[in-house]
Amino acid sequence: MKRALGRALAALALLAGAPHAPASARPFTVGDLLQQESFGAVVIDPAGRWVVFERRGPYASAARFDDDQGNPIGTSRLFIAERGGAGPARPLLPEAAAGQLIGALSPSAARLAVFQIHDGDWRVGVVELATRSVRWLDLAVPKPHRGRLLQWRSDEELLLVDRGGGPLTTSDRIGRVSAELLPRLWAQSAAGRGAHTVVGSGAYRDVRPRPAPGRLLRIDVETGRAVEVARGEIVDLELAPGGRHVAFRTLGADIQSRPGRQIQGDWGVSPQVERLQVANLETGQVATPCAACDVLPSLMAWSPRGTGLLFFAREGDTPWSAGRLRRYDVRPGRMSVLDDAGATPTVLGRPEIVRADWMGEVPIFLGRASTPGAGRADWYSWDGARAVKLTGALPAAAATLVTLGPQGFSIVVDGQLWSVTATGRARRLGAARSAVAAPPPKTRDRRPLATARALGSVVAADDPGRRLVRIGPDGRRAGLALPADGVVEAVGPDALGAVVRFDRQGHEARLEWRGGEGAGRVLAEINGRLADTDPLDVRAIRHTGPDGQPLTSWLYLPPRRDGPPPPLVVKVYSGDTYRVPPPFKPPVLGLQGDTRVLVGQGYAVLAPSLPRPRPAPGAGEEPALGLADRILAIVDQAAADPALAGAFDPERLALWGHSYGGYTVMATLTQTDRFRAAVAVGGYADLVAKWSSLPVPHRPRPDEGVRSNYVTGGMESGQGRMGVPPWADPARYARNSPLLQADAITTPLLLAHGDQDGAVPLTQSEAMFSALYRQNKDALLVTYWGEGHYISSPGNVRDLYARVREFLDAHLALPTTAAEGPAESPAPGPASSAPTPPPGRR
């Protein structure tokens, strides 16, 4: 919900941009894109004394760029501010190198556990907040990007997972695993010793190597003494209130698909079974509540007394929809199963999530009645025998709760805040825009932050502005007045203080600590060098979708200048819809086809909403069907709008797409010749080959399971939506594969791809290039070495934009007028020395 609020506020800021740039403004450039700074996680201690946050420096200032989506972490530093102080926050660890991340505050908030990337590995330190001194533990830990791997048991003791002497997993170093392992393997073969990797199926499923088992440790932070609690491939832990027990999950056998059943979807995306174990930290005994269970990763919830544990699990070869909510009581060691109770939990997909928690010592869950054709999801309580609906009187039942206690909970539904008692009695408390502090808090990259369960807050409508409202057992209590254009990042006790982020022109600008009714204290200001870039001029294009639904697409216009209208670049991604202008993503996700850069280069840019059409009853989806018509209908509607007369040239059109957007580009080109040029970055063209290829980074080291289900499931149940394997409906795969309609493509196409792309293999772009090369059609194939699914090395990013601009300008030029000169010089090398191709066909 917090991200949704942020997107809405960002949209308001975009729309408020002046349509005509001031004389002092300048275009947003690729250099600006690579110099962007950002904020990471923000925490306020429970007493409201300290605020600590992550500040990530200019992206291009990182020491290395082979950590895939983790590249920005290499610039991250921790800052701290104390309540009552003045001026900006200070560095928490000024002497330590960058690559710092928040781990967790100790119960008294006197200490903070932190992570740091150090010499290519990860380590953990304990910081004394009062003195800023740090003690680094002599342990090698996994990269902190998946489950919770660290939690305080007391101010003196940490629970921590380390790698047990093993190397980082493939996922923990996915951007560099090939560079590290392949030369060694090649050298072994060259020396005659041999080098090989083996994976198996069926009877041979378990032949692959397993990583070294990790260790769950109790660490005395005063002495550094470590006591091993358990050993295994541990991926998540959850400490019980009171600190006597800890639940943790370990990876088990590989999950292999079966004939006649779906891959992913109802069956899940995990490549391995996950087992639940519970350790008694006082006696050292470890219990396995359900040895035959595969446990859902999204749920390990302890009761407030720390004696009951909720989890969701399936047994045998069954889908998650056949799983059951289970309660494990540690004192008798007894497990109860929610079965035949009148309702079952709802399993949300990709990844699989079940919403459940404790209302005092009573479990509650979001689910549906067990009867066939049950309607909407509601919250239920479970007394051990039956499920009791609690939210039936509400207009709907949101998945996120604002507060939760023994007497009931509060929830935001359709802009209204409701309280619901333990017996299901509902009372409307007033208007509310969103919840902002529902536990457990997480960072923006979804790393769990280990903090105590706390009452929540909401952002409430307050004429004429907004107000942070604290929700407690006694109802609403007014808190902090909020600025209209701020995004709440963290909330202090009693909602009387908060850390608020302010954005400008699509980038983050400053972080403030707000308290009382006055102006906030500025903790940090970033991206000051971007303040003089052109304001964004964004226009809404209202239209209907393929099923008649109302939709909005968004048109970005460059500053008005003398001369002809600018050409239009249409950035496509089939399946995306935008109620507000699509937010600008941070690096590395946002480095591909940034709208601000394209507008700065003089192009108008259209972001069309392209939901998939609903298939006819009994028919499968056809993802390529009618793509060109739907895209061009939006273009034509914008061109025909009198308010947009002369805003862009509808005769000079180009396409740009990344990943599934690259597929969208290529599928569209098989259906129309109206686009003069197109760019597909990391896209796929052959659905059968995409279905069958294993991810490149996992080839030399399959320590995390065979990733066949990942790619085949993505094509059958994910974006591909084929529903069946290729042999079950080869014609459907063929109809939707641009490669097999490549003879219809007449538009010049630039294909760009990273050789280490683990999501879409380089061979996909190579296949389309080969098809166009075979027909003597205009095409470029650019391979970026050492890059994954996102082109992320600054040199390669610069080359991509320079090369694409040269390509587009050559094809989008007016028949008698040369295109306006580039705002930035193209990168040296092949792009600037290649012959200029002829104008694109129409």
From TrEMBL:
Sequence ranges of Pro residues compositional bias: 825-842
GO biological process: proteolysis
Annotated ranges, domain Peptidase S9 prolyl oligopeptidase catalytic: 646-812
Keyword Signal part of the UniProt annotation: yes
Signal sequence region: 1-23
Listed Pfam families: Peptidase_S9
Sequence segments annotated as region (Disordered): 818-842
MF terms (GO), sorted A to Z: serine-type endopeptidase activity
UniProt keyword annotations, A-Z: Hydrolase, Signal
Protein name: Peptidase S9 prolyl oligopeptidase catalytic domain-containing protein
Record organism: Phenylobacterium kunshanense
